[in-house]
Amino acid sequence: MEHELIELRKHISSQGILVQDLMTGVCRELEEWKQSNGDNHEAQQDPEISEIQDPLPSERDDEKMIFLEHIDVLLAEHKVEEAIEALDAEEKNSPDLKGSGETSVGEVSQYKSAFLKRKATLEDQLVQIIEQPSVGVQEMKKALYGLIKLGKGPLAHQLLLTSYGLRLQKSIEVLLPSSHVCPKTFSATLSKLVFSIISLTTKESASIFGDNPIYTNRIVQWAEWDIEYFVRLVKENAPSSETVSALRAASICVQASLNYCSMLESQGLKLSKLLLVLLRPYIEEVLELNFRRARRLLFDLVELDESLLFSPHFESLLSAFGTISETIRVDSGMRFMYIVKEILEQLAPLAITHFGGNILIRISQLFDIFMDALIKALPSPSDDDNLTELKETIPFRAETDSEQLAILGIAFTILDELLPNAVMISWKRQNESNEPKSGPTEDVPSASTTIELKEWKRHLQHSFDKLKDHFCRQYVLSFIYSREGKTRLNARIYLNGDGDDLYWDSDPLPSLPFQALFSKLQQLATVAEDVLHGIEKLQKILLARLTETVVMWLSDEQEFWGVFEDDSIPIQPLGLQQLILDMHFTVEIARFAGYPSRHVHQIASAIIARAIRTFSARGIDPQSALPEDEWFVETAKSAINKLLLVVSESEASEVDEDHIILPDDMVTDSDDTASSLSTMESFESFASASMGELDSPMFTDPES
What we know:
By secondary structure, this protein is mainly α. Helices cover 72% and strands 0% of the residues.
């Protein structure tokens, strides 16, 4: 080819000489003809002759042809850099390409067309270089710079994005098979790959094209498309959403991708919000299905026994609430904690930061289900009708006092210690993490997390309170009502003073039902001390709530008050005095035992005020019928001492729930522990204060 080019140059040169000789000869002949005819004027008016006479156009044509031939040679040899420089210089210096000069319009258009044709050919060559799969970075950058010099900046930028997009696509195709081999880390590896390409492309764009807003906006749009593609790949190649692996993979994905987004912010790309918007539905789906699986596992004893190992810490705390025959109840508590702990261990710090509130809500919902199941395990008034159905829906039943208290102890230990500690360990990892922050609003989740945790703990407490209140309600109702449904707290015991239920005379005592209440609280406290050993707080909470439940029932029982309000039934001042003494006695039980008595005091005060109003409406004057408040306080204290000093050397037998008699036949209904009112020592099992250390409440007549 080189030899042929040399031959062509020689041929063109010889032809040029011939043309030059011809033109010179013609000019000479025309000059002679002008002189012979003397017609210079016509010769001057003929433009074609003038053009032939002028040697300058011929020289310019030669230069153009030589230039175009030079460009053709450079293009044929793919010397794109030299061709770019030559075209750029010609375009700047040639008046014909600028649209000015003395040449005709036709010649300029013809030369410009040839020039632009060669320029387009050069652009095609540059595009081909950039689009080559194996092109090197430096070679591609030179080609991009060439397109920019040729005035094709937008095309060059689009080719840059396309090139890096193809590189990303090929890298992803290589990575995809590993999604089944390493499902938990696939999303992290993919995010590293995607965000690395985005970062590299952004840097190259800035170095080649500068800070032009047009190109910057294109980079942002391209990066956003890549983020959408990344999220779609994560969803399509993730493990099954209900598995722990899916939760771990999703959490790692959030952690890694938000970290990379944080790094990109230094390059002017803020992609965190878009990423979270795109990831949120997927993360919430994974959380929802994982917690559904947790609800199924909560009481699936067979699967648990085959697959799960308990934490020694959980086992040491919860195993204290059950013997070998009660391991099912203990296992249920350890199962709950294992399920929650397994979920929490999958969470990365940034996943907690952005989805912690959602996770707390779902944990509280799981705790609600656990509490509901424990409530079903306790006796209730509907047991006789629905016992078979309940046994089919729950894996265990609590029949005795000790079994019921064990359930409360398990629930309280989870509420008060195990569950908050497990959550706080995970949240502490979030605070102590040295990972880069995901954006300028990173301080906000920290403040909101504190509020979320407080609300979460409040919700857990409310859920546990339902379990506690159910126990207290059924316990008190079993005390108040006999199996036949008759009430022991009958208002008729306050109608006269000569019945068996009133001990008045010179040695006044509370009515028999309230003496029985004192006995039941004492024996329950003895059982609680053994079953709930080390959880004095729960013991006092339960005993206080039981006392509150009794007076609350009395306050709300309209059938009880209807007896006093019935004008056809005679009443006496002694009945009012006995009722007020019973209320003072109830308050003194709470105060003497050392558990909270404020609410009991408030309800008892309301009952006393209502009783005084009711008896006053029936014509009984409280001022003349009732002794001073101090008398009731001292009598109530004295009654407690008397009951504590009752000597009973024999074990208590089964209580007759149809009729309670004190003091000789006072016994417990617990199947596990029998106790009596015989000594101060037995009562001190749940009493943390002595009578001398307590201030007694003073009840006053609101109408006096």
